[in-house]
């Protein structure tokens, strides 16, 4: 695993940014929680514990109960990078999360975001 600076960033610092991005576009924190839960398997309580624990992103994803098997359906560009082409597994998970929150902020329906 390469040593990207983002891997050591605290999830508790990034989570509020996801919520703010969603809320600026008239979406809710509950929808952000639903998206993160779909991707990682964390319950709302489990997610709260992760935010409170101040774990870094590497630990957050390492402790995720179960990455959704449908993540391969997440395609597209985030931060100028195609998520499906990211080679580092941890960076790909981070980009998946970024992409899902971007889709939420762009007004996409939850059914489509969650690949239902």
TrEMBL record:
InterPro entries named in the record: SP1917_dom_sf, UCP033199
Protein's UniProt name: DUF2200 domain-containing protein
Originating organism: Oceanicoccus sagamiensis
């Amino acid at each position: 695993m390469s040593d990207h600076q983002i891997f050591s960033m605290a999830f508790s610092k990034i989570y509020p940014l996801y919520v703010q991005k969603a809320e600026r576009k008239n979406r809710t924190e509950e929808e952000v929680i639903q998206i993160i839960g779909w991707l990682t398997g964390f319950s709302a309580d489990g997610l709260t514990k992760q935010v409170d624990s101040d774990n870094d992103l590497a630990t957050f994803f390492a402790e995720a109960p179960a990455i959704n098997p449908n993540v391969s359906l997440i395609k597209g560009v985030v931060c100028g990078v195609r998520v499906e082409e990211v080679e580092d597994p941890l960076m790909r998970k981070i980009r998946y999360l970024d992409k899902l929150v971007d889709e939420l902020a762009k007004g996409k329906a939850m059914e489509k975001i969650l690949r239902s």
